[in-house]
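Lab notebook, bench 4. We co-purified these components, and the gel suggests they stay together. Before we commit to crystallization screens, I want a quick structural picture of the whole thing.
Request: model the full complex, all chains together.
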Amino acid sequence: MARFILHRLGHSLLLLFLVSLIGYTILHLAPGGPLSQYALSPGMTQAELNQIAERMGLNRPIPIQYLDWFTSFLVGDWGESFRDGRPVLSVISGHLFATVLLVVSSSVISIGLGTLVGVLGATRRYSAWDYIATVGAMIALSIPTFWFGLVAIYVFSLQLDWFPSGNMYSIGDESFLDYAHHLVMPSVVLALVSVAIWSRYMRSAMLDVIGQDFVRTARAKGLTGQRVLYRHVVRNALIPMITLAGIQLPMLLSGALVTETVFTWPGIGRLFLDSLGYNDYPVIMGVLMFTAIFVLLGNLIADILVATVDPRVRLE
Amino acid sequence: MAAATEQIQTNSKLRFFESRTLRRFVRHRLAITGLVMIVGIGILCVVGPWLLPHDMLDINIRDRFSPPLTDTFIMGTDEMGRDLAARLFMAGRVSLMVGIAAMILSTLIGTVIGLVAGYFGKVTGTVLMRLTDSFLCFPQIFLLLTLAAFLEPNAFMITLIIAVTSWMEVARIVSAEIRSLRERDFITAARISGASHRWIMFRELLPNTIGPIIVAATLTIAKAILLEAYVSFLGYGIQPPMPSWGNMLNNAQQFLDTAPWLAIIPGIAITAAVTSFNFIGDGLRDALDARSDAQ
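Here is the predicted assembly.
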């Protein structure tokens, strides 16, 4: 097990290095590179720009600059926001709670509902229900998240007035219930696509497991259908779902950005869009790298979890 | 007799395979539904603007915010009194073109990278596949928006950016296929007979992976249309006055209470187009999968 974890960790670190290379390339792709912000200020002369470039070490060879950036990045020095001069990491952590709240609650919905729909689809294969679930999932995958959010706001906020149309809490009322009330619509909207994917994968994972020898053995030794289903089939079908949860993370974060925009939710996605509007390069890069690390970590945890519950994986 | 049948089968193997595939596709109800839908949408987008009495840029201040079915405005008008139907069809041209062009480009990139990675394996393959993995670590919208913000956003750039951020899946599929095909006898035979790497890659291996590539490409159109919609909705994609399904929704939220059709109609168009490509992709996957005959 230790060897397995070390191996996965090494793999993740390699990816982190490559991710940083891509990030650094994009940073330098920006017209004018890191200097662009200074070039905009009035009365700036080329001589002054050169001076700043020298002070920032931009006239050194690119590989040296990259190493410098990467080492300070590793120790948590991600630069300062152009907007208010605060360190990028603390700006990001200020928006982290909202996004985590949204992502976790929508994951709970999608895992619960998706597993249920998938299990029902696999046990009643080719039934009318299975067909509706299949077609429904494909349509759900095709609906733009932001549009689903707009329709939800129109129906449930503007027409029915059941839920607030945005923000994380009402000013003056920050109780648990108030948060929950605000959380319902964005998390359901964000969950839509994941429910569709989750139910499809759960269905096919169930069908894979049902066809295996140990299920036939369980049936042959006289266990009831229910017991075989829940003790043997569902449990084993859930193993690949752990990997799927890791793989789905980037998609979930992309969805969160759009959902946060529609519902004025103060998370990482909104921070990112605001920073784009202000050309706040350090924060843009910071969020980009942060999300990539978040995804890497999520996948690493998923891999280790799978290896813990399923010893067969470790042998490969 | 049996030998003769076999002979005929091997001679017409390709046609035989194709007709079987075609038959499976035609029998796939969803796929045909998708095909009919997308052809319908395509025809509407091409012909629609000529049939409507309004140009998409005509501003009719007196008729602003007309709900659908007022006079000749079958889908109503927007905040400047422009005909929504005319804009929707023109936007459809843009969105579908961007989707298809991005698909072609990203499939090309993905296929070449997957082919090279799968065929050469070892260091080249590992490096390319790890690069693919690391691109997959970034949430796609974040990467797209960063690039869109740094570059000049026009239809061509958006297409390019979508392609650059969505080739990874095809690359993974192709490299996995190639890795399993590489060990097969016909490749060994080709190598022994002195075929060059390029010949083996493009004449022997690539034709055998065309099925999964076509399926992935169809699904990529669906994804590309969605991505264009996301980026344009957020204001970093196709810029007005050129309409796209995404940017039509860009300021629909502020008129949601007074003019909900401005938000609802373009969204239905996006969903319908994306659903059709997903249906077609699903049908192609089933049709190209020989195992599905057994079921």
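Chain B touches chain A at residues 30, 130-131, 133-143, 145-147, 149-150, 222, 226, 229-230, 233-234, 236, 246, 249, 252-253, 256-257, 260, 263-264, 266-267, 270-271, 274-275, 278-279, 282 (CB under 8 Å). Worth comparing against the SEC data before the next meeting. The radius of gyration of chain B is 23 Å.
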